[in-house]
UniProtKB/TrEMBL annotation:
PANTHER family, per the entry: DUF458 DOMAIN-CONTAINING PROTEIN, HYPOTHETICAL CYTOSOLIC PROTEIN
Protein name per its UniProtKB record: Uncharacterized protein
Naturally occurring in which organism (per UniProt): Rossellomorea vietnamensis
Superkingdom of this protein's organism: Bacteria
InterPro entries xrefs: Phage_KVP40_Orf299 (IPR007405)
Pfam families on file: RNaseH_like
Length: 178
């Protein structure tokens, strides 16, 4: 099941650095296998921060067993310029999330689904979400991009979430962009 792209990306969390995507997937698999009756949400989201001479992008991958725990990691990408155009930055954030979502091939998604499938009548669930750091509020500068970005995430077969429900992008990833 190893994918050629597995080693192109490097992830980290508080316990480990230099984690390949293959290792990330194995962590997610083991996390879900530890409770096949769980209510799982696999979430991917990216946030960015413009700094003096570069822009930092952080993509978070979070597997949540509602009410019972979480495993998470991040991928950091530095662009050596200030990305000041909001649409360009939001679009690039989404591209980075799409890149990671695409690593969850049908074969990989089926492996995860098959963990909970025997237990769905006992309440086990699995969903995959794309968290987009945009909001629909009148005061939100990103509201004009909602339809475009949501459509992109839906086209990938992932349930889009925007603020305030996009916490992987707006809270978890945001924490590491500073």
């Amino acid at each position: 099941m190893k994918n050629d792209k597995d080693n192109l990306f490097s992830f980290q969390n508080l316990q480990e650095t230099g984690i390949s995507f293959g290792q990330v997937f194995e962590h997610i698999l083991k996390f879900m296998q530890s409770d096949p009756y769980g209510h799982y949400r696999l979430m991917v989201g990216t946030d960015s921060q413009v700094h003096h001479s570069h822009t930092t992008f952080i993509t978070g991958i979070v597997i949540l067993n509602e009410g019972k725990g979480v495993w998470a990691c991040i991928r950091k990408v530095l662009i050596p310029r200030k990305m000041l155009q909001l649409h360009e930055r939001i679009s690039y954030e989404l591209s980075l999330s799409e890149e990671i979502v695409s690593l969850f091939t049908e074969e990989r998604k089926n492996k995860l689904i098959n963990i909970v499938l025997p237990n769905i009548y006992e309440g086990a669930t699995f969903s995959m979400e794309g968290h987009i750091d945009i909001g629909n509020g009148k005061q939100n500068k990103t509201s004009k991009f909602v339809k475009e970005m949501v459509a992109r995430m839906e086209a990938m077969g992932v349930e889009p979430k925007i603020k305030p429900d996009a916490f992987v992008a707006s809270s978890y990833a945001n924490r590491y962009t500073k």
